[in-house]
Design brief:
This protein is α/β, with parallel strands linked by helices. The protein contains 64 helices and 58 strands. The N terminus and C terminus are likely disordered.
Length: 1725
């Protein structure tokens, strides 16, 4: 029955109008202006019976003359011809030109004839939608000729039908007989008049009986065939389509719109089952089994799952789909879900040509479904997703438009793409299918916001069609089911019929195996060997990519064919692996969950989960890959408790938080304000780059998804409306009359063949574009097949050829005459980029020849760039953010065509480094950047010239045309000679200025790229994003947390009894939530809200066992708190547990937390304790000193500065950091932007020892916290811990005033921690007695008390028994004020302690004094009595040096910076240092370095870091070098140095050096409270009335007077003078050449060696001079013994310029001694 119609390509040419011979046709076409009530401004007419033509400019010709001319031209015409002439041209002519007699002629509309003449494809080669395809623009005369050509083709097509199927032309003639023109034409073709009704009915029966329902056909013949004329046209269209239906055919949408009888007729004939056995059509086409066999070659539907009657549920679902009922189907994995929607889709396509749209979340799954359908012979399925190339996308959209596609699988984000939307609007929709429908529900495990937009799209764009919705999922618990049903009821008014097939698979055996992390690999290998011994395949699922690679390697070694699969592989490689697995070439795949959803391999015998999934839904989906053939298979979960925490961590990492929304909203509002327009067009990447304070990594693979999700939620909350994705429209004016003329100009231009083809393709698209608005980037990409980045260049090229005028307008915000002025910013950028490229070239000169990755550490580079630019260290104009911008600009593509590529590729490694791979040689990069900067200067000058004189303003809006900027480039003689493609250069320059913040382009990159269109709505531009707005998404995140807890419960139950675990699964998918929680989580309901395990929660919260501490740890996320804590009250513990609570329980990203400590030791200790509590979750928390924070903020490298010999003024550094944070610098024009960029999303700040901060530190904390910010959203939550009673650093500028102001400064809540967990009751009472006399105390009403758990214990603790004389009371010993005499009593006291408690280690005892000098006789006494001691030297002073100045420190830095590879393993560094320590176990420098390396290793155990980043870590974290080792020894230190420490036994000396000031009282209090078990205080009898004068009044104190007063011992009157770098001749060895023996002699000296001071020279034991004192160092003549405390390293770079002439080597060592002698020496110090 089907005719042999010519295809689009084969349609015969009708230029001669041969088929029109004998017809006097008047072809008319008019051009109208829609903006002026469709006023006709041009008219064209052509006669078919002559060569006559008429063209009128009706806008300039009087109306009467137009009427006369057209009437005259129409004389003798028999009929009017035109395309869409009946609905458009003729009504417009009749309304605007009265008296046109030709309008009474019969009409043939070629638009109306097309579906009849070309039923397979009504879009003839000359037709596009309603329009004719013309090679000229606004050419009605040409279009009139085309209409005649089209009519000739249509008549030719009817003639071909008459020859092949005369009965069909007979039917058409009968139906259209009332149209005189068509009756005439068809009579000519048939050679006879129109048939009578019996003839027509017979013809219809012969042609259509097998194609439609027989009953309805008979009704059509009986009733409809003789109906009115309009119905006869509808019948003609319907039957014409039915003749060729079943694929590759489509009725145009205008038919459905104007003749609703057409779809109704097709539905009646095809879609409704008459139920009569004799109707062969209905018996076959409405029988699910027949369709199943026909389309899928399957004899029957699956028996399982079954419906309530025991028959196939799959069949029920298919039947509902065939009847186009809305439904929700739940089928287990492997339950035949795909057939349930594919079979109805194919049936609807064949029956009515309708399109089934399947929304699917996974691109790989879409492709697999299409491939499987093709393998079954189904060719009508296509997919639309982001992975398609431009040609693939064009082909797929064409199939949809032309009716070649009956099924389209599409990702939800495509519904915002205009070209896709336009394509499906041309089709009738059979069903909207939502695969993996749980993605629609916030209660689902894989909720996706883009899914929600689809329902809005259907409601707004397609609801009139009334297409049903079919949802499918394998995992839906009651909450999800209710959510889905409610969603479609609310959004579309649809009631979804539920088909619940459950989740169970009877052929799968589930097993849970408890394992430790270390044994997983072996267990996997063993399981695979056992389960695959009889053949089959396996999948091993892992949560991390690196684990897939590790396990795959181990499995392959066990002689199983295995490969790894994860999202990081190249697309082609993933396809190869997946296909090899499906083809049986691989036995095992080790994969992330990126593999599971698209796999349908029947013989998978075992699925192993190496890590616990995040939900039961995910687990069942992935485990359900097993046993698809129905045979037994096993699903094994390897269960390690720590994996649950890892899963919580992974889940948290994928979530958005409140600050993300605030930051993105702020970025959008900033853009709205800048350009004074409520609508913005911006890409996800661009919005993210401009939105500070968000926790979304710009380079992260999921960054775009997170931004799109945030925008969707902001839309749901009413802040904005996101419209269709928009790309820039290129408005153009064509200068040539025809496409043929344009092609001729292009071919004559001597372009490359490739460019010629592209130019011609763009020109063709422009000439054939019917829209007056111009073409977008997407249009050109699809129509011309070019990439977006080539659009601008080719348009400019066509402009240069005189083919078009490019009217692209540009709007930019520039700043002039104020802070952040654009011209000054470009000057700074110019200088910075020059120096940066030179530095990078020097660091890796060969990188451009061998492709070696180069690692750039940002802070060292900032330091070096400042040095080169002669800026002060810490100068904020060179900062990390600016450097990142500059380097990122080099990753943009340069050039065009095949040469278009970026200068380099960058990737973040470590916290502060980038890994760079060059794509071009250094010289080429420098030249390109120089040209780019030159063009940028010209462009910026042109833009600034548009700012009126005298205007000084930030973000002044200027507008211009691209041509103006191109002309400015052209008149620059130097640029004209060096720039080959000005348009490309302009594009690069504009993006460069925009990306680096010099200017801001309206619509930013969307000028050249596709982007989101966002409209700020109503009060959305002003109101804040509140917790209520975030609540719905937070609810979804809580549900994910709940799902992980359920999965954890499954694993625990399964580890003991799998039946219990499977019962939980059944309950989870069937019970109401309340019942499930009550049954399985009784007594643990609060835990379900927390993103951590109950064991972890107990360690973080319950283990505190103190209600006040627990309350502090569990405080709400936001808010400011001051903890006034007494000594030993666990304040640091509270900080650690509070941070752990945020990390583990609240799942705050570690990168949002800062913890500031007073010194490096405290920072290291806090890091250690935090890691011990939460392990890897602690990585990324910024625990640092104030100086380290200032270094980071200003981008200053301590390592770089010290190696170069540049001194850092830390007070100024902190001030610079404060200026940066508060916007008082030219580095940023916008203070808010400056703060946001610098803080990088920090949200919480913790401050330890707040009472000890000075004014500069106070300002830094204030600036970090944002105390002065008017917007509360920008402030950090601060928790400070301090004790005003322990404020002891007034000499360093510390003031207790700052802690007193805290509550007012931060509107803080104050909590008192006064229970002492450290000391005995006796120590506490004595300490309280001393401090209560202090003035202006904050805890007057909150005295320190012993913790409640020890309240009933003896007041002296265990010493109540050990000390039978004084029962552990505080010993107050009256002693001589002379240090020599008191030292002897101290030694007696040490011996007494060890006598009473023999197990006491020497390291448990500390001797504290007011000054270091007081301790010197004690030191001598220890040496005399052979008591091991460790002297803890002052942090400041002549003898103090940086550990990294030492030989050991410098050797470590040399090893780190000299490492061959750009990345160094932290574990390898720790091993290297431990080997050095083993070689020199007594060397304290190696001990300190090992501690620093261990801290680094703890922070990043499996990480390789850039060498320079490691160097900075070592410099910042390893502080002052210690003099003594860490062996078991009595600690001798000043009271100041004891701060933060504690000892079992404390002895405090008093040699009359404690004065009675308030500060001294606090210092004594600190010394006393270091004691845990015993405290001994000496009171100088020479200083009555001191701080201890009334202490014996305290009940806990016993006053003691020694029975024997010690005698003076001369040997104790020793003085130790440690010399620092300033007191020795630091350049002594440097004045000798490198080969001189002096350097070898010094190299043999190690710390602890004995040397001798002879005059001013240091002499080794072999008599060789190894050093000299500085000229200003006073020492008496003679010889003195000395001990080497350190050997430091000096370099030429560290030498002041005035001494360089005397330097004879690049590097040398300096010996630092400690001189030991009498008081005479000390008196000269």
């Amino acid at each position: 029955m089907q005719d042999n119609l010519p295809t689009i390509e084969e349609a015969p040419s009708a230029a001669s109008h041969g088929r029109l011979d004998g017809l006097a046709c008047l072809s008319i076409d008019v051009e109208t202006d829609p903006a002026s009530d469709n006023r006709i401004f041009k008219l064209g007419a052509v006669r078919s019976d002559s060569d006559a033509a008429l063209s009128l400019d009706t806008g300039r010709t009087p109306r009467a003359k137009v009427v006369d001319r057209l009437n005259e031209f129409a004389q003798g015409a028999q009929l009017i011809v035109g395309h869409n002439v009946r609905r458009h041209d003729l009504p417009a002519l009749g309304a605007q030109f009265a008296g046109l007699g030709c309008l009474r002629l019969p009409v043939i509309d070629t638009l109306e004839l097309s579906p009849l003449a070309f039923p397979r494809n009504p879009y003839h080669r000359l037709v596009k939608g309603y329009k004719l395809v013309s090679d000229s623009r606004n050419d009605p005369l040409g279009d009139a000729r085309l209409a005649l050509d089209l009519l000739a083709d249509e008549i030719e097509a009817f003639a071909a039908m008459q020859a092949s199927d005369p009965s069909w032309i007979c039917v058409l003639h009968f139906l259209l007989r009332d149209d005189p023109a068509l009756d005439h034409i068809l009579e000519r073709l048939r050679g006879q008049p129109s048939p009578d009704p019996p003839q027509a009915r017979a013809a219809v029966r012969s042609g259509f009986t097998e194609l439609v329902c027989r009953a309805r056909l008979e009704e059509l013949l009986r009733v409809d065939l003789g109906g009115d004329t309009e119905h006869r046209w509808a019948i003609a269209y319907g039957l014409a389509w039915l003749r060729v239906s079943g694929g590759n055919s489509v009725l145009p949408p205008w038919v459905y719109a104007t003749l609703p009888k057409v779809p109704a007729l097709i539905q009646e004939l095809r879609e409704i089952d008459c139920g009569r056995p004799e109707c062969r059509y209905c018996s076959h086409q409405h029988d699910p089994e027949s369709l199943l066999l026909q389309n899928f070659q399957l004899p029957s539907f699956r028996a399982h799952p079954a419906n309530r009657a025991g028959s196939s549920l799959q069949r029920d679902i298919v039947e509902a789909g065939l009847k186009r009922r809305s439904l929700l189907a739940i089928l287990p994995t492997g339950g035949g879900k795909s057939i349930c929607y594919q079979l109805p889709a194919l049936a609807h396509y064949w029956r009515s040509g309708k399109l089934t749209v399947i929304v699917s979340p996974l691109q790989s799954l879409m492709k697999d479904q299409v491939d499987n359908l093709v393998a079954r012979g189904v060719q009508c399925a296509v997919t639309i997703n982001g992975l398609l190339t431009a040609p693939e996308r064009t082909a797929a959209l064409d199939k949809i438009r032309l009716g070649d596609a009956g099924i389209v699988l599409v990702s939800p984000e495509q519904f915002r793409n205009r070209r896709f939307v336009d394509a499906i609007r041309l089709r009738q929709i059979a069903t909207w299918v939502f695969d993996e429908a749980h993605c629609l529900s916030k209660w689902g495990h894989d909720f996706r916001t883009d899914y929600l937009y689809v329902a809005r799209f259907i409601r707004e764009s397609s609801s009139a069609q009334g297409a049903p919705v079919a949802c499918f999922t394998a995992t839906a618990k009651p909450d999800v089911i209710d959510d889905l049903l409610d969603h479609f009821k609310a959004e579309l008014g649809l009631e979804l019929e539920l088909f619940d097939g459950g989740h169970e698979r009877s052929n799968l055996e589930y097993v849970v195996v408890p394992v430790d992390q270390a044994e997983k690999a072996q267990r996997i290998v063993e399981l695979l060997a056992r389960e695959l011994r009889h053949g089959g395949a396996a999948v091993v699922f892992c949560s991390k990519r690196k684990n897939t690679e590790l396990y795959a390697e181990l499995i392959a070694k066990s002689r199983l064919r295995c490969a790894h699969f994860h999202g990081g592989l190249l697309p082609n490689r993933k396809k190869e692996i997946q296909q090899a697995f499906l083809d049986g070439e691989l036995d095992v795949i080790a994969a992330t969950n990126a593999f599971g959803m698209g796999v349908d391999k029947p013989d998978i015998r075992v699925v192993i989960h190496a890590d616990i999934p995040g939900s039961l839904e995910s687990y069942l989906q992935e485990a359900g890959r097993a046993g698809r053939d129905g045979k037994p298979a096993k699903c094994v979960l390897l269960f390690d408790e720590e994996d649950v925490e890892a899963q919580f961590r992974l889940s948290a990492g994928s979530q958005l938080n409140h600050r993300d929304f605030v930051g993105l909203l702020k970025g959008m509002r900033r853009r709205v304000r800048r350009f004074r327009s409520p609508e913005i067009v911006v890409s996800a990447k661009e919005l993210l780059a401009e939105s500070e304070g968000v926790d979304i990594e710009l380079e992260a693979s999921d960054a775009g998804t997170k931004v799109a999700t945030a925008v969707a939620w902001l839309e749901r909350s009413g802040f904005l409306r996101r419209n269709e994705n928009r790309s820039r429209v290129f408005p153009t004016s064509l200068r040539m009359a025809s496409l043929e003329e344009a092609h001729g100009r292009i071919r004559a231009a001597s372009l490359k063949r490739e460019d010629t083809e592209r130019y011609e393709a763009v020109a063709t698209a422009l000439y054939r574009n019917p829209s007056p608005e111009g073409l977008s980037t997407d249009d050109l990409l699809l129509e011309a097949g070019i990439e977006p980045e080539d659009c601008f260049r080719i348009l400019h090229g066509l402009e240069q050829l005189g083919i078009l005028a490019n009217d692209l307008g540009l709007t930019a915000a520039v700043t002039k005459g104020v802070n952040g002025a654009s011209d000054k910013a470009l000057e700074r950028l110019d200088r910075l980029e020059r120096e940066l490229l030179q530095l990078m070239t020097e660091l890796a000169p060969d990188a451009d020849t061998d492709g070696t990755p180069q690692t750039l550490s940002i802070r060292p580079m900032c330091s070096e760039l400042r040095r080169r630019m002669k800026l002060a260290e810490g100068d904020p104009t060179v900062n990390p953010a600016q450097l990142h911008k500059c380097i990122r600009s080099l990753t943009e593509n340069f050039g065009s065509g095949a040469e278009r590529r970026s200068a380099m590729q960058i990737r973040r490694v470590g916290a502060d480094s980038l890994r760079v791979v060059l794509h071009r040689p250094w010289q080429s990069i420098r030249e390109i950047c120089e040209r780019r900067r030159a063009v940028a200067r010209v462009v910026l000058t042109s833009l600034l010239a548009k700012v009126p004189a005298g205007v000084k303003q930030a973000d002044y809006i200027v507008e211009c045309r691209a041509k103006e900027l191109l002309d400015a480039i052209d008149v620059d003689l130097e640029l004209r000679s060096t720039i080959r493609e000005p348009a490309t250069a302009l594009e690069h320059a504009l993006l460069y200025l925009h990306e680096t913040g010099v200017i801001q382009l309206d619509k930013g990159r969307a000028i050249f790229r596709a982007a989101m269109t966002i409209e700020m709505t109503g009060d959305g531009s002003k109101r804040r994003f509140l917790k209520e707005d975030f609540a719905p998404l937070q609810e979804h995140y809580r549900e994910r947390t709940f799902q992980t807890h359920v999965m954890h419960e499954y694993a625990k139950l399964g580890a003991s009894r799998i039946a219990g675990a499977l019962a939980l699964v059944a309950a989870y998918f069937s019970w109401p939530r309340k019942r499930l929680v009550k049954e399985y989580f009784k007594g643990r309901t609060e835990l379900l809200e927390l993103a951590t395990t109950d064991d972890s929660y107990r360690r973080i919260v319950d283990a505190l066992r103190h209600p006040v501490q627990e309350e502090l740890v569990k405080k709400p996320d936001r808010g400011n708190h001051l903890i006034l804590a007494g000594p030993g009250s666990g304040k640091t513990r509270v900080l650690v547990h509070r941070i752990a609570y945020l990390l583990r329980v609240r799942r705050i990203p570690p990168t949002r937390i800062i913890a500031l400590t007073f010194n490096r030791g405290a920072a290291a200790e806090l890091r250690r304790r935090l890691h011990a509590l939460v392990g890897d979750d602690a990585r990324g928390v910024a625990v640092m000193t104030y100086h380290a924070m200032a270094l980071r903020l200003t981008g200053t490298s301590l390592a770089g500065a010290e190696i170069q010999g540049r001194m850092i003024d830390f007070d100024k550094l902190i001030a610079d950091a404060v200026d940066l944070l508060e916007g008082r610098t030219e580095a940023y024009a916008d203070a808010d932007e400056a703060r946001d960029r610098l803080l990088q999303g920090y949200e919480y700040i913790f401050v330890d020892e707040y009472q000890d901060i000075n004014r500069a530190q106070y300002a830094l904390v204030s600036a970090l916290a944002g105390r002065r910010l008017p917007d509360a959203d920008g402030r950090l939550s601060i928790m400070a811990v301090g004790d005003d009673d322990q404020n002891i650093y007034a000499f360093n500028g510390a003031s207790v005033a700052f802690i007193r102001r805290f509550r007012a400064d931060y509107e803080a809540e104050v909590t008192y921690l006064v229970e002492n967990f450290r000391s005995t009751q006796h120590v506490i009472t004595a300490s309280n007695h001393v401090i209560q006399a202090a003035r202006d105390r904050m805890k007057v009403d909150h005295p320190i008390r012993i913790d409640a758990r020890r309240a009933d214990q003896p007041a002296g603790g265990r010493w109540s028994v050990l000390d039978s004389e004084h029962w552990g009371r505080v010993r107050l010993i009256e002693a001589p004020g002379n240090a020599n005499l008191q030292a002897q009593l101290v030694a007696d006291e040490v011996k007494r302690i060890r006598r009473l408690s023999p197990d006491t280690a020497l390291g448990d005892i500390a001797v504290l004094a007011r000054t270091h000098e007081t301790l010197e006789p004690v030191r001598a006494m220890c040496e005399a009595d052979s008591i091991r001691y460790a002297i803890v030297t002052p942090a400041e002073g002549g003898g103090a040096i940086s550990l990294m100045q030492s030989r050991e420190g410098r050797r470590t830095i040399d090893a780190v910076l000299g490492y061959r590879q750009p990345l160094l393993s932290t574990a390898a560094l720790a091993r290297w240092l431990r080997r050095r320590l083993r070689a020199e176990p007594a060397n304290p420098a190696w001990q300190e370095l090992c501690i620093a390396a261990d801290d680094l290793l703890r922070e990043s155990p499996d990480l390789s870091m850039p060498a320079r980043e490691i160097a900075d870590w070592l410099y910042e974290c390893s502080g002052t070098a210690r003099r003594e080792g860490l062996s078991d020894a009595v600690r001798l230190m000043t009271a100041h140095r004891a701060k933060g420490l504690e000892f079992k036994h404390v002895i405090v000396m008093d040699c009359g050096d404690w004065n009675g000031s308030n500060e001294e009282r606090r210092l004594l209090y600190v010394a006393m409270t270091r004691a845990r078990e015993t405290l001994t205080l000496f009171r100088a009898d020479s200083a009555p009335g001191g701080l201890l004068s009334d202490l014996e009044a305290a009940e806990s104190v016993v006053a003691i007077r020694p029975e024997v007063r010690p005698s003076f011992r001369p040997e104790l009157d020793v003085r130790y003078r440690a010399l620092g770098p300033a007191e020795v001749d630091i350049g002594f060895a440097g004045r000798f050449p490198g080969h001189h023996r002096l350097h070898r002699d010094i190299a043999r000296i190690v710390p602890g060696d004995v040397v001798e001071l002879r005059g001013r020279e240091l002499v080794a034991t072999d008599g060789q001079v190894v050093g000299r004192l500085a000229k200003g160092t006073l020492v008496p003549s003679g010889k003195y013994p000395a001990k080497v405390t350190a050997v430091i390293v000096r370099t030429r770079e560290q030498t002041p310029a005035q001494y360089l002439d005397g330097v004879r080597t690049g590097r040398w060592e300096v010996v630092l001694p400690e001189i030991i002698d009498t008081s005479q020496l000390a008196s000269l110090a």
